[in-house]
Structure formats: structure tokens, C-alpha cells
Amino acid sequence: MSNPARPAASPQALAVSLALAAGAGLAAAASGLPAPDFAPIAAASPQIKLHLGAAIATFLIGAVLLLGPKGTLPHRALGWTWAATMATTAVSSLFIRELNAGSFSFVHALSGWVIVALPAALYAARRHKVRAHRGAMIGMYVGGMFLAGGLAFLPGRILWAVFFAR
User: What predicted TM-score, i.e. pTM, was given to this entire model?
Assistant: First the structure.
């Protein structure tokens, strides 16, 4: 069931968002940034490839869920898919330890948070506790995709090498 307090994003809002993303991409290309070099990803371990693929899927599915109507059958079905990709992203990160000489790093604390918060957020949805569900899901999306994902673009990390190192 849709949440009447929060109307769904219109197709126009989605089109504007996609146009802004395309414009940002064109602006980056026009600014002289070099084309991405995907060789570091090709050379990465299977754990990193799984983690990156799950993170990209989580990011895209999450954007669709945030923009679309809530409480509908498609939202719930896509939400379960998002939960699976988010869980895969979090658990796969536990097997990536190149940053801290084989030990866990700060980023792994975010993964632990997702491993605990995700089932709680799903439980809240099943119990129709919309506010708790919404807060937890948005928190995981922002924390996981933008905080942890943003850290993946720091110098010395694979995504830095893909997009910025030459």
C-alpha cells in the first residue's frame, strides 16, 4: 500500500534525475578526465569482483526504490532483491582485507552494522513499522553506498586506480 504522506516520484522526476546524471557524466568527459581503466578490476580477487558487482546492483536498485512508490508489490519484490544485494555487499566485504595488512578496518564496522540492521529493518517492514523501516533502509543506503562507497575512491584503492590514476 502506498504511503499517502510521501507521494511517489513522478516519471518526470526520474527523467530529470537521469538527465542530471547524464549531464554530470558529459561534464566529466568534457573536463578532460581520462576514460576509466578497468584493468585493476579485471586483476582484482574474486571477492572484490563479487563485492563491487553487488555494490553496484545495490546502488542502482536502491535508487529505484527511493524514487518509486512505497508499499506496492513491485516495491516489496525489488526490496527483497535489494536486501539480498546489500547483504552480499556487506558479507563479501569481510573477505576483503588488503587495506589494513590483513586485519579488519573501519569500513568493516559499517558491514557489521548492515549485517545487524538489515534483518531488523526487514522485520520492521513485516510488522508495518514504516518509520523504523524507512529510517534503517535510508541509513544503510546512504551509509553503505555513499560513506563506504565514497571511501572506495580514495587514493590507493581500486576505484581510484580505475577512474583517476594514470
Answer: 0.77
